[in-house]
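Exercise: predict the structure of this protein bound to adenosine-5'-triphosphate.
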Amino acid sequence: MIELQGLTKRYGDRTAVDHLTFTVRPGVVTGFLGPNGAGKSTTMRMLLGLDSPSSGDVRIDGKHYAQLSEPLKYIGALLDAKSVHGGRTAYNHLLCLAQSNRIPRHRVDEVLETVGLTAVARKRSKGFSLGMGQRLGIAGALLGDPEILMFDEPVNGLDPEGIHWIRNLMKSLAAQGRTVFVSSHLMSEMALTAEHLIVIGRGRLLADTSMADFIAQNSRSYVRIRTPQVERLKDIMDQAGRPVVETGDGSFEITDGDPAELGELAAQHRLVLHELSPQRASLEEAFMQLTAESVEYHAGGPMGSGPSGVGAVPDGQPVPAAGAGRSRQPQWGDSWRNPGKGSGAGSELGPDNGSGSESGSGSESGKGR
Ligand SMILES: Nc1ncnc2c1ncn2[C@@H]1O[C@H](COP(=O)(O)OP(=O)(O)OP(=O)(O)O)[C@@H](O)[C@H]1O
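Solution:
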């Protein structure tokens, strides 16, 4: 069990972690979420005694990290996969960790096998890919067979097979009754892995709840309907006091609708339906809803979330071709590709061909030079 009580960390006048109080319990995977700079890594570092709190307290099974005589037997952590001596082989790196915590040598072979690095055990880790480095870090966390495991962005750099593997590993560790605390920015992955969530923003606790409750409380549910009899659908639902909302892709949404009730209503009126599906918002939507006010670092310009950018295309819908069916909106890169028409400086690149296509560094404009 991990217990935080009023944990606070200040760097100068900046409060990175602000009176965090929560408990991470055994038996389930607990996800640790927050926007960039929310204070997740700082919290995890304090847990491991790598940073000292400005105030408050954090304990591992009732003790401070510094009080644990052979800490790898209590808590295994992956914080930064690159923090290994690159000149050492994977085997020697783990052996050094094992010897410093009186862990038997055979455990090194066992964890190398578990993470799939046996074949490269005698290779120096500086030649490892990002994914192999992550696996080595995970091996280090598992080495002491600890009851508590903590992973900061464990799937970073892993391929789909690796992501699948770590998901199952975390779940099985939790199923064995261990405490598993994991941070990730990959919401779809977290939704499949974690049962409980701790969400922070600007250092403060925003949510400490089950995954299901978190999604239910921070997002809306609706029923999606498709029909070739659009006007009839609108009339029927209006009369029933269930107004439909057009989505723009040919489907309609009814907020908080009961699919069974709506299906029966459609049947009574002999309305042909091509789709009637309950929609549950994703963890990503719920997360963005809850943390919207806490996000410190926003992407700027149309590549971010501006009206003409990629972010303007709703989830699940195709990105429209440039210029298709509407007047051409300003595109990312116009200021340098099309300097005469925008605010960009200089004109030696020549006129833009107006296609808006991304032709890379060997573009038409480059030929004019
Ligand atoms: N050593 C440090 N000195 C000064 N400020 C720091 C230090 N470490 C972290 N911070 C600041 O504390 C805040 C929290 O940082 P932290 O790395 O813990 O966030 P995070 O949630 O892990 O972010 P990310 O998701 O981007 O990894 C940030 O504003 C960061 O700039």
